Queue: 4 jobs
Job 1
Amino acid sequence: MRVIQFASKTFDSDLAGFCQGASVPKDIQDTVTAILADIRQRGDEAVCYYAAKFDGAKLRARDFRVKPAEIAAAAKRLPAAERKALVAAHENIVAFNKQSLPKDWLGKNKHGAQVGEINHPIRRVGLYVPGGEVPLVSTVLMTATLAKIAGCPEIAVFTPSNSQGKIADGVLAALDLIGIDEVYRIGGVQAIGAAAFGTLTVPAVDKVFGPGNAYVCEAKRQVFGTVGVDSLPGPSEVMIIADESTNVTFAAADLLAQAEHGSGREKIYLVATSAEIIKEISDEVQVQLKLISRSEKTQRVLANGFLAIEVKTLAEAVKVANYVAPEHLELLVKESAHKGLLRDITTAGAIMLGNYTATALGDFTAGPSHVLPTARAGRFFSGLRVADFMRRTSVVRYDKASVKKAEPVVSAFAAMEKLDAHGRSVKIRAL
Ligand SMILES: NC(=O)c1ccc[n+]([C@@H]2O[C@H](COP(=O)([O-])OP(=O)(O)OC[C@H]3O[C@@H](n4cnc5c(N)ncnc54)[C@H](O)[C@@H]3O)[C@@H](O)[C@H]2O)c1
Ligand SMILES: [Zn+2]
């Protein structure tokens, strides 16, 4: 862990330097470029090669697609309590995300012409479900549920297998629950490349979604333009803003929870109003580290990806949060400060309010998608919503009366832009 003070002369550059560590280094960028080029050229053959290299899985192209019977069997095997959890989480996710289903609208402009917007689901979407370190069962629900609400006709899911070519039962059971049967047991850069460029076995998609490690995230960035991509959700981040009212045990547990993802590139931030609070919480982190099962990988994040920041006021904490744009932001501060912080913090992916709101509630079951921007992309991206699975077309209809009203405006623009044919095309309708 590193501690810096907001008041220090080098604070801005220290913070910038630490955040820079969340961006993708040149060697990963180059690796990704090379793999994508190979996938584009050799298709399935290259996918097999990289699945063997990175996941240890000996797959033939005809093994990529998971058979319906395998999905059904996994769903059947899932213990009742786990199935119940999937259903409960799904209910909250559906209820939350239905709220943001974009609506078509039709109105009139100042000329009296009809104007409006219509929305359509994106025809074919590719969802990435991480599975390198641990199978992210919840990511199935946090992406596929939204795609279903949007009404995407084709939903293809990509997730890495283990070295035996197997996918975790929970992931397949979640897909079964949502009713998705196009599933490919391929992950990493090779999955993103196959989804974007298409191969003989994998038809190309129109947009790729979902979180992943630095390789997956960088692959999505590089295929942007060939296909659409969502918010570049990379290795997890949490920032906790703490004051004297913070529950130290809870705060330490939440820092450890996001450090445990295990890709090793996760970032955790503790912003506190005194050095004592920082010491109490970071000591407690060390105590609780002994209680969790993934402690070795988590320790790596604690050593390299843990920044504590001492501030004098919550106004300073706001400045830090707005710069970092953390994926998850826990405001474990006195209740009287909540309203002001919600007003002033404008870049967080998701805000968790009050001592009882663990980030893990949002990860699994609260309702909003856990697919959230990282590495400061929260400055310009928001968390995944149903609208991201849709595209919009604007519609305009003039009649003779309204075109007459618009003609002088068009003629003036046509003259300014020296585009005679534009002006003429409207003038002849207004005669
Ligand atoms: N931001 C969000 O919304 C969000 C949500 C959930 C999870 N996450 C993050 O997703 C990440 C999941 O990472 P993961 O690693 O467990 O799974 P992953 O599926 O994202 O990545 C695994 C794949 O990475 C590839 N890979 C690994 N090492 C490589 C190398 N040296 N060269 C090329 N390719 C390589 C392999 O193909 C492997 O299959 C975690 O960091 C987690 O924090 C983010
Ligand atoms: Zn998490």
Note: The chain has three domains: 2-22+235-366, 26-101+122-233, 398-430.
Job 2
Amino acid sequence: MSVCFSDRLTQRILATKSVTCVGLDPRRQSLPQGLQPGEGASVADWAAGFETFCTEIIDVVADKVPVVKPQAAFFEQLGPAGMQALHRVIQHAHNKGLLTILDGKRNDIGSTAEAYADAYLGAGEASVWGSDSLTVSPYLGADSLDPFVAQCDRRNAGVFVLVKTSNPGGGMLQDRSSEGQSVYQTVAAKVEEFSSTRRGECGFGPIGAVVGATYPEQLAELREKMPSAYILIPGFGAQGGGAQDVLAGFTSAGLGAVVNSSRHIIFAHRRPEYADKFGEANWQDAVAAATDEMNQQLACVFGQ
Ligand SMILES: O=C(O)c1cc(=O)[nH]c(=O)n1[C@@H]1O[C@H](COP(=O)(O)O)[C@@H](O)[C@H]1O
């Protein structure tokens, strides 16, 4: 890959006029009936169902959004068959021109983190996964992030470091203060340090941050503290975040962030407002409608 991750993301955002990230979180019990393999099905049957589900979603949203975020956990639940499905889902997204954020929230001590970085962000035959970017945890310290940053440099990959997560309990650690600074502020400063020396043409670097839509005040604060970092904003839709909550994450040109929604888009056929209109058999149309709706709700970021 010859172009910086942040520039590739920016190009896709401008081309699609969308800041929506569609989260691929396949859950057995929520799959459309037609894709549920039935009683006594093997994990391989479920993996096939997940793969069909995710690739069909990709086909629907490929021209509507810049990026998709497969959540590794749901594929890992299915063992090797699930991991192979995940691999093919990532490839399918790339074949359709989408960027990928693999949501694995990985990390370990530096020497092991190197293996994670190589596994998920490596290139060609060296990597089974070859994702464009990966979510990573900062809780083993700055040296644990170095291998991921090195991989960003080597391969023009990207990472999103957990800074202020969307869940209610995240504050237990992230809001803790010492020496006048909270943990999330300390992590944000590190992210900015990494990205500020690696800015692409768009003005942002490849080391991004995760900040939940459920914390709009902190999002505004963190946008200011990390002017060089792309922000992945989860928590839109099913977790209660709305367009007004995420506005502060963007620059006046509508750049610098992408907003993830998983359940509200991929299982839109189960939402009352779409269930009657499309029915379960037309779940792909519900995905398209929910994606269009989110794009419309977020169109305001371009006109701030
Ligand atoms: O890293 C993430 O993507 C993430 C971070 C965070 O703070 N909160 C959060 O919800 N996520 C992920 O974003 C997705 C949210 O899914 P929905 O609540 O269904 O939109 C899930 O895959 C979560 O694992």
Note: The mean pLDDT is 95.
Job 3
Amino acid sequence: MSAEEPPVLQAKNLCAGYRRVPCVRDVDLDVRPGEIVVVLGPNGAGKTTTLLTLSGALPALGGEIRWRGEPTTAALHHRVRGGLGVVPEERSVISRLSVRDNLRIGPGPVERALELFPELERLLGRRAGLLSGGEQQMLSTARALAAEPAVLLADELSLGLAPKIVARLMRALREAADRGAGVLLVEQHARQALAVADRACVLRRGRVVWSGPAEEATRDIRRIEGAYLGGAAAA
Ligand SMILES: Nc1ncnc2c1ncn2[C@@H]1O[C@H](COP(=O)(O)OP(=O)(O)OP(=O)(O)O)[C@@H](O)[C@H]1O
């Protein structure tokens, strides 16, 4: 099981921020094969900054990131080639290209993306900019998962989407984890993410203020919301 396997991606005392000013401090996080770790926290807590730094899109200001046990400062495209998948906060589809072409320029085979999200088949010829928000998010997620990444980093997959489509996306992440991927999911809305997650951690003002099994977070959700999330996790 995942708890016995070494982490694929690890942050140790990670400090991160912008123009050398840290807004994330001393964060320890790890993602093992086959598990979903959800990072919760209110607006501005540092969730996206943490994820961008783990992906290599932002340089770390302190501490260390390890990939398969080795310290890394590699840029994003190197990490993607090495098995990292990213679904960024801004849906990453290219609006003027068709769904098919968006899948073609992704890191994995189009056929695999369609196996994972058969819903996209009937949309292949459509311009991605004409898709609904949920369809765009399925396209982004399908593209990242088609490469069967060792670790997937996903930022606010559920933003602005109906619960049914959020459940669909969460199911796809759970299935990827069950195939052996590690998943780090940043979410402001906790409950649906916790339902598929193995572990959770809560960031507040750039620091980890709670971490533990997702089951415990679910059981304790009212207290966690009240203490750390300002009610933001209610969805
Ligand atoms: N490009 C940027 N330049 C400077 N400061 C930034 C930048 N992006 C974010 N910040 C600041 O960094 C801090 C952490 O922001 P971050 O986006 O990581 O939080 P978050 O937890 O992801 O919040 P949200 O849920 O609103 O996306 C905030 O104070 C934010 O204002």
Note: The pocket of adenosine-5'-triphosphate is lined by residues 18, 23, 41, 43-49, 188 (CB under 6 Å).
Job 4
Amino acid sequence: MRKIISASQVKLADSDCLVSENISSHELMDRAASAFVGVFRGLVPDKNTPIIILCGTGNNGGDGLAISLLLQCDGYDDINIVIIPTGHRQSDDFAYNMQRVKERQISIHQLERTSLQDFDGLGLRLTESVLIDSILGVGINRPLDRALAEIIKMINQQCKRVVAVDLPTGFRCEGELDDDGTVLYAHEVISFQRPKLNFFFPESAKYMENFHVVDIGLREAFLAELPSDYYLIDSADIEEIYNKRKSFSHKGNYGHALIYAGSAGKVGAALIATEACLRTGVGLATVCLPEEERHALYARLPEAMLGSSEELFEGVKYSAIAFGPGLGRRASFLSDLFKKANAPLIIDADGLNYLSKEDTLLNALPADTVLTPHMKEFDRLFGPSENWWQRLQLARRNAQKFKITIVLKNRYTFIITEKGEVLINPTGNPAMAIAGMGDALTGMLTSFIAQGYSPREACILGCFLHGRAGDRLRLEGHAVVLPTVLLTQIPLLLGELKNVPFA
Ligand SMILES: NC(=O)C1=CN([C@@H]2O[C@H](COP(=O)(O)OP(=O)(O)OC[C@H]3O[C@@H](n4cnc5c(N)ncnc54)[C@H](O)[C@@H]3O)[C@@H](O)[C@H]2O)[C@@H](O)CC1
Ligand SMILES: [K+]
């Protein structure tokens, strides 16, 4: 897992790198510039594209200058640099690179003061150029000065393509994203070493479209020591957590899941959750559906068993219980389930809605429970929040208080563990925004828990592979991904893990 670090920790990591490698800060800046250009070339392959580089006078601006030198060497032949004063003095690395740029044939426009009128007077071809934003990076320490904000608002109206260095100017790396704040909108952000935490919040869509992360060689061992509660899941975690199926193993080794789901008109939710559970490798799955709906189950999923409420817990020990998809009024069984449940619960959809109406039940949630709310379900459960930052902090407090895992679903799903850590899932895409997708995830999480993974491990595996399956189909050309189609990918993805699923 990759630790997400704060703006102030980035500076510590930069300093550590200079000392541990015995390099100068402008050498590190050259590295950052070179990593930036590596991605930029792919984004803007046409070397005749007019490029405007807006530089502040701190180190983010220094990056912009170093980038201009590399782009010129690369053959980009229409580069204009504009220097916008930020702060009272230039940083040393800015000044160093300014000297180098002056020795080259690159046009530099120096604003003597930050003013919209002066900026406008430069007559830049903003609409037809690619703009590189290196005005401010992690050094922002106050709301944008008024004159700078005015310039940025004008750029936002005119520029069609902006590539930001490290982060968009005006964007806060962590904490609440200010709704009224001015930010230079970036179509692409090329961020150094780690994405910034706020890239993962839905509100960031107002300020940026895509981001790329480039390695600038900061010391991973140093980053690992920095305190942080935020982590980004990556494919190495999946390889590490997933266990291959052993030879001589049988269905009894892979758990028995109970799926308590479905009601008249909503049987599909139960079928999707159960199919997901089976395709993720559970040994046995019992579904508790209304008796009159049983034919759908037999027709669609002959591998599953049907159970009725009365006999469910007679002599059966489940290893995980999913509760909620498509349940409707049947969700009132939740209070009884708490008394009878003999396995970790995964509560979704109507199960969550019932829980929010009977909030005394929250205190009675059994150990190892996983809740899988989307934003509205979360707000109904724990109360409204003004923004996603507040919502995430509320989730952390509740996960710790009730000793549960919360899977807060979104473009980037946040897995909040009972210790209050936040694990961010990077996979998934808008083609997956369709009914039944959450039921598929619930089935997958239930399957992994039934197979013996801890709730934390199961949520990492389930969320990542669910999104990855959708990403693969999107790449193959599916504009929309149906949950039942997504599920066909799961055994294939498991089969591809380095740790192949057979001994
Ligand atoms: N050795 C390093 O420290 C490295 C730094 N790098 C780059 O350096 C950036 C950080 O550089 P700095 O710490 O110099 O900070 P920035 O360049 O982000 O900004 C600092 C300057 O902006 C001014 N400023 C702050 N808030 C402002 C506001 N609201 N309105 C107007 N001016 C404002 C400050 O007074 C200061 O002069 C990173 O984002 C990254 O791009 C990279 O080159 C990697 C190596
Ligand atoms: K920037």
Note: The chain has two domains: 2-226, 235-496.
